[in-house]
Automatic annotation (TrEMBL):
Keywords: DNA-binding, Transcription, Transcription regulation. It holds the Pfam family AsnC_trans_reg. SUPFAM superfamilies: Dimeric alpha+beta barrel, Winged helix' DNA-binding domain. PROSITE patterns: HTH_ASNC_2. It comes from Streptomyces sp. 900105755. CDD domains: HTH_ARSR. InterPro entries: ArsR-like_HTH, AsnC-type_HTH_dom, Dimeric_a/b-barrel, Tscrpt_reg_AsnC-like, Tscrpt_reg_AsnC/Lrp_C, WH-like_DNA-bd_sf, WH_DNA-bd_sf. Residues 2-62 form the HTH asnC-type domain. This is Lrp/AsnC family transcriptional regulator.
Length: 339
């Protein structure tokens, strides 16, 4: 399990994934050596990783939530085919092991972008069913982390890292403070590198983009300031009390959707809440300590929300890919350098 410093460090990295060990040490009131030691241990034992992610809305993209079904003997092959794609994230094996759920990112305006993915999948995967849900609005997730992974710092400590009330309360930050960003090939290379390693040193990022370190530093500062890129954390949720995982597909009357989704985004059990297209217009990702806790949440937590007309529960058996790029063997490791 995580100790007090571990939890504080995880929360701090949610706020500023590129904060130096010295900055983090000041906020946590420990030495930089202590921060470094805890960080390395979390990387090795808790699968901690910082990843830089582009904001889809500001970088000309949209997201689809795909539910794909395959025969039992080919479902895992289908899942791994999705994992290998650069435009996918959150690849889950759910239900009885024959359904795969994944998030696909496509260029804005490509209304049938998800269909292109299906044509590119190898025929051997034995695809038997498909449904695609356009992600219209996210209430919890992406920029607003699961509350159980971001509840260790005081308000003062969060301010020291530049955090705001959005970080601790799970509200969706406005994106209208910056118009859509036109990305150059070097920008794409920069974002690809940060998706692999959000704490990569400026010198490493410069080598991958062809820019000078000073140019990389200025461009990264600009992209962060206007919201075109942000940083997220990958970590084993079981260490934070999320041993049992389930996807929840809910149908809510449109008149009550925003009210219900906003309320659910404050629930400790939910790491992701979003409005989607389709017969179930609200999807959530539940993380609970055990099956008994999941039962209590479904019957008492969600059962008390009268505006939820129907709900489907799909247990997550395996998480094959999260938000970052799957590291390749021999890729540079994250040593906590952000200079």
């Amino acid at each position: 399990m995580l100790d007090e410093i571990d939890r504080a460090l995880v929360h701090a990295l949610h706020i500023d994934g590129r904060a130096s060990f010295t900055q983090l040490a000041t906020v946590l009131a420990v030495s930089p050596q202590t921060v470094s030691r805890h960080y390395e241990r979390l990387r090795e034992q808790a699968a901690l990783r910082v990843v830089g992610l582009p904001d889809p809305q500001l970088t000309g993209h949209e997201q689809w939530l795909l539910r794909l079904a395959a025969a039992p003997e080919t479902a895992l092959d289908l899942a791994h085919a999705l994992v290998r794609r650069a435009d996918t994230s959150w690849v889950y094996l759910t239900g009885g092991g024959t359904e795969i759920v994944a998030v696909l990112e496509t260029p804005l305006g490509m209304a049938h972008g998800h269909s292109l993915l299906l044509h590119e999948l190898p025929p051997s995967v034995g695809l038997t069913a498909v449904s695609a849900h356009h992600l219209l609005h996210t209430y919890r997730g992406w920029r607003t982390p699961w509350q159980m992974s971001a509840n260790a710092l005081t308000a003062r400590q969060q301010r020291m890292l530049g955090g705001t009330r959005l970080v601790s309360r799970g509200e969706t930050p406005p994106s209208d403070h910056c118009s859509q960003v036109q990305l150059s090939p070097a920008d794409h290379a920069l974002m690809d590198a940060l998706r692999r390693d959000g704490r990569a040193a400026i010198a490493e990022l410069a080598a991958g983009t062809g820019w000078s370190p000073a140019t990389v530093s200025r461009r990264l500062d600009h992209l962060r300031a206007c919201g075109a890129i942000f940083f997220d954390i990958e970590i084993d949720p079981a260490l934070l009390g999320g041993n049992v995982k389930a996807l929840l597909w809910m149908a809510v009357a449109p008149a009550h959707l925003d009210e219900v989704a906003t309320a659910l985004a404050r629930h400790d059990e939910l790491a992701f809440v979003a409005h989607t297209t389709g017969p179930t217009n609200l999807v959530a990702h539940a993380l609970c300590r055990d099956t008994a806790a999941l039962y209590r949440y479904l019957t008492h937590g969600l059962g008390a929300v009268k505006a939820i007309h129907t709900m489907e529960t799909a247990p997550v058996l395996r998480t094959l890919k999260a938000v970052g790029t799957i590291p390749t063997p021999g890729s540079p490791s994250d040593r906590g350098r952000t200079t």
